[in-house]
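Database export, one record per block. Field names are fixed; values are copied verbatim from the stored entry.
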Amino acid sequence: QVQLVESGGGLVQAGGSLRLSCAASGRTFSSYAMAMGWFRQAPGKEREFVAAINWSGSYTDYADAVKGRFTISRDNAKNTVYLQMNSLEPEDTAVYFCARRPDTQLAVRSTDYTYWGQGTQVTVSS
């Protein structure tokens, strides 16, 4: 089993920045490094892909809406994946979830991920 815990969410003004963290426990992150992803869900909307990273961090992918503003990274020694969010917009307001898939290669579909965190709220005020 793998447990994922997100942190770093909060309230920020438009144009500001936040850094989300996702700490993994259980089956060790580095011993079984797998692809990780960030997704988000706004009220009344479906969960959507934000960013993904492969097992080593050498490959990343982003949703068009966040490309150039968000950066996903990982530190396998710390069992943690990050999402640096800059130039935040009110449209970025959502609950952000990290997820882990049983494969080393990244993916963009939520159905490709097996383990999910509980989410952290990000609210961007205009």
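Remark 1: The mean pLDDT is 93.
Remark 2: Residues 20 and 111 are 22 Å apart (CA to CA).
End of record.
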